Amino acid sequence: MNFSHTSFGPITVVPGESGSTFPYCTSIFINDDARVLIDPGAGPGPLEKLKAETHVDIVVNTHYHFDHIAYNYLFDDAKIFINEREGGCFRKRQVIGSLLGLSEVYGDEWVDGWVERISNPDTKPSPYSPQNNHKWWLSSARIDGTYAWGETFNFGRVTMQMIGTPGHSHGFSCPYFPDYGLVYTADMDLTDFGPWYGGSDGDIDAFIESARKIAGLDAEIFVTGHEKGIVKKGEFTEGLATFLEKIGKRDEKILARLTEGRTLDELSDMGLIYKKKFLVDDWIYMWNKIMMKKHLQRLVKHGAVLKKGERYIAAR
Asked: What residues are paired with 27 via a beta bridge?
């Protein structure tokens, strides 16, 4: 195969289109006795090229989010695996709606409407999110198996361990290749936006704990799912500190607006996490509101904010 991408032995890093910015991601290809593709979200260009040059036996999804499963459907002869916590997403699409936040914010009927919309390739796209993208339907259509956290796979020369790293999603997992000192960190990605825990299954404190666990692995090469790509351990550790600091900065922005009591909806409409211009998209509004809710719950838990009825106010 004539890859122009960076390889570490049989492990090849496949950069995503548009610099691996959402809704694309960096993918990993393992050219071994079993040919394995991890998170086929790199986009049609690099993935169709990969498919033309080799056969993919196994597709592994680290979690169920769109940008990491979007092109599962291209590899129709491959066996598809996802973590056991999220396997239900590929058995009943309403589970995606529940985990991602649709039920929490809009109700179960909205979830059913979403499933109907993604089944139609002619559904009008949403402004800023992939909520109506037909690839949701195509790439969540089947599952061949699940893996457990801590499970080890042997593909030939390559041994892969699946590290459980909840926080970004309920079952979020990071593939670790100890013999090559490499770990795929997926959405622990060091981007300027900061950590994302905008689904109903996201968890701020779990995200922080998982990120620190990954940083502590015996690895020298860290491959992020977005933008940065390949970074050495020192750069990852330094970047991770800045990345996680954004959580505290979000807290500070929220606290600054709580000198008087405000409701969750009032705070969400201020655009403190996602900018206001993006809130016209139903899903961006949903993610923004859920992230705001998680921050408020955390601030209440830590005693920094008081909840009085439906209103939140900074503790004095």
From this structure: 14
CA pseudo-torsion sign 303, 308, 312, 316 = negative
CA–chain centroid gap for 154, Å, is: 25
The separation between CA 288 and the C-alpha centre of its own chain, rounded to angstroms, equals: 15
CA dist., res. 236 & res. 198, Å (int)? 23
Best CA proximity match to 190, nearest among 160, 211, 162: 211
For β-strands 79-83 and 145-147, DSSP reports them as parallel
Query: 7-238 belongs to which homologous superfamily?
Result: Ribonuclease Z/Hydroxyacylglutathione hydrolase-like (3.60.15.10)
pLDDT at 316: 77
Architecture of domain 250-314: Orthogonal Bundle (1.10)
pLDDT tens digits along 158-209: 999 999 999 999 999 999 999 999 999 999 999 999 999 999 999 999 999 9
Residue 288's φ and ψ, nearest 5 degrees, are: -60, -45
Domains 7-238 and 250-314 share a fold: no
Write the DSSP assignment of 111-135 as a string of letters.
HHHHHHHHT-TTSPPPSSS-TT-TH
